[in-house]
């Protein structure tokens, strides 16, 4: 009996030599469940399984090398397994195991080793010792250095402070205008910024900070015909220096690595001067008017070149940030979230290089960070104190006397007055210590661990001073105290950055897929439209999460989306051509939140046609949380040329018709078909290949209920009210925040968090705080060999 090639399976956490243990558990368990799976007139489910199934699937569903190599595990309900077995098993004689026999063997398989509950009982998941992920390392170093500087202040103001001078320089007595500019994009023509300005000679200075929405390399661009300088994150050295110009260049580009969730000090200076015009008394002829313009743009890590939008600028000045640029090998994401449970030689070398980079940065800024001067008599003492505080903050707890001697004193004693050398040695040793690199190394289950778990869950970074102070004063001992800190921490930009990252990963667009379409079929769908669509998605997700109504169901049910003039023209909304981004309705009976957002619809489609399979896989895996095995072999979609009279739906149904495909595509296709009213660029349509669109779909729930719907709105209403969807969302978010398996925190954890989500009005922010609080308070270390748990 072979099910593995045609069933929805999920790979267990471990396999191999210990596979016999599940069998022992199963035998013990059967003593309790045997009456439920035994019929009065015949064999038990176990007896049927051993007679007809074990030869292929193994005694405990572990699989066999030649006939069914994959373990017999998955997410189907007993009713779904019963239906599948009755229709398709045994493979060499389908239908011979039906009726009561199918019910009994399905119940036995499900209860003994197939279901999540059975797998947890047979091999309990555990919380594993984990190092910092790449993102956590970058964040922790940035915040570690930032803790020695005055904090930046972020309020509701957006844009940059602009100071306008009626001179080529920046003399205060020549300043005529001081205002907040939402963005830097000005074309002055041959005039000045105002009537009082000399049109031939004026200058402008913009100051504030730029907010990085994601971690990565940003390319900054300044466009002007005149002189300009740009500083980003380094107030001493310009990133772009075109103050002394030669030639006719009007565009200047430079790149810099920034860590998300922080503000970076920015200053842009612009000057229009006479540029060599002879205005001496010997030449009474007035100079010809000269055109002047200036614009500040960037290319974000996953974006296109655009004017830096107002939402990413603030007039408040943030301190400089130490953004580690050493490249690390990527973290393992085989389970769907970042895991950091192994260390390779490449990772260890990257950690060393990053420690050296940070040590050099600290040495270069030592006087500032330690609060001293280069020639101060107490410089060595203050540097030593700085190093003590540096180590304590890096280790997220106070140092013992022995640790002070090991990490601080011996290096200063050995440096013989070379303060910079001692500081570098301390920084490198601290950043290479397991106490920094591992989340909970070097301490017992105490308030400092609670603080660390909370901060890494919400910020992917170390605790701030307020959190450490709460730990030191015993104010992290109750759930209420921890929850209050979580609520406070949600207001930090780092929490926003982490949730934004989650949304993009959940939607499978974190790497900004290349979206190119057939220009003959979709004229006007160019790179600018794609960039605007990604911005639209960003704005929608931010509004749902951080707006006045952070209801998870809005992600699925919203009937409007952010559009600007360019997108409105392409998608048929009524907005002016130059309109900035604002919410607009297309057709509320057609649109349904992220399900019909044009960016996702275009990403999950081919160059010239839709892809119900790609869209259906996203709905199945991402939204409903159903595990799907990869197809047994790659396949090429049937082209339109081979079947010119078929619709996309008909071609997909034809290609996935074989039984080997239907166990997965029987779920995938009907979900994807509900979005067929939207073409490959996300525009609504009524016909495909000259035929009316068939957007009907069906889904069988884990309880065996068959739900039918037509179109995206009906599908969205079902999904928004589905406990399967709520559970899947909870688990996806938990894994992203905590980076540990949710079931290691207890068999009821998913259900409890799902119920909490519903009880709190499906508030995403409250769910985020609840997850972080739960993870902070629960150690839940499990010893797999003994099946024990210590708290």
Please write out the topology:
Elements: H1 20-33, H2 45-52, H3 54-57, H4 78-88, H5 99-114, H6 116-122, H7 134-146, E1 160-165, E2 175-181, E3 185-189, E4 202-211, E5 216-224, E6 227-232, E7 240-242, E8 251-258, E9 263-272, E10 292-299, E11 305-307, E12 313-314, H8 345-364, H9 366-370, H10 379-395, H11 401-414, H12 419-432, H13 434-437, H14 447-459, H15 465-472, H16 479-489, H17 493-506, H18 527-546, H19 554-557, E13 560-563, H20 565-571, E14 582-585, H21 598-603, H22 612-623, H23 648-655, H24 659-673, E15 687-688, E16 691-692, E17 696-700, E18 706-710, H25 711-720, H26 723-738, H27 749-759, H28 764-777, E19 781-783, E20 788-790
Antiparallel strand pairs: 1-2, 1-4, 3-10, 4-9, 4-12, 5-8, 5-10, 6-7, 6-9, 10-11, 13-14, 15-16, 17-18, 19-20
Helix pairs in contact: 1-5, 1-6, 2-5, 4-5, 5-6, 8-12, 10-11, 10-12, 11-12, 14-15, 14-28, 16-28, 17-18, 22-24, 26-27, 26-28
